[in-house]
Write a structure and sequence with these properties.
four-stranded antiparallel sheet, 2 domains, about 10% strand, alpha+beta
Amino acid sequence: MKLPKNWSQITIGQFQELQLLTEPSFDNQIKTLSILSGKKVEDIEEMRIVDITAALSKLAFMAELPTAKNLGGFRVGNTLYKFAANQHDLQAHQFITVQDLFAEKDKWVHNLHLIMASLCVPYRIFPPKRMEVKTSEFEKIAAQFRDKMPISFAYAYTLFFSLCLPTLLETTQAYLKQEVEKLKKMAEEKNGQPLHG
């Protein structure tokens, strides 16, 4: 049975499935092996307990949280997804989605692929070119991240971003207030009368 050797070999989707197995039961250990090996539960149930125990011992690394050292980017085909270092790199629909998803604190694991898709800036590798995330392609990108992105990468990045998000939101709100004041002032100058609101 082929099993992952570290968190970088476990996808977001597999991690999401594992998070649903909250009870430390033998049944859930079998389901864990099924999720991580791609084998059917029925096939694993036909194995000897000594072999199941040996397979589970290979997953000892899961006792510690995932980590990732390189947060540079994630490649799918001819597209490299770099992740925003600040909110100004995001499109408006991405930023709104990030706010909404982080507001659901109890669902962050369930939403992890969506969070990652909200934080990405795609670049075509050849020829090199920055692309925009179209709202019509958002679900497709999120599904690719769920099925292919290592949890070690996603976990480290979202942890970093979630620590920075409150400050980013305050900064953005202050910036938007300044922009509204500038627009009001321009409108007042153009119309010759003060605006209220």
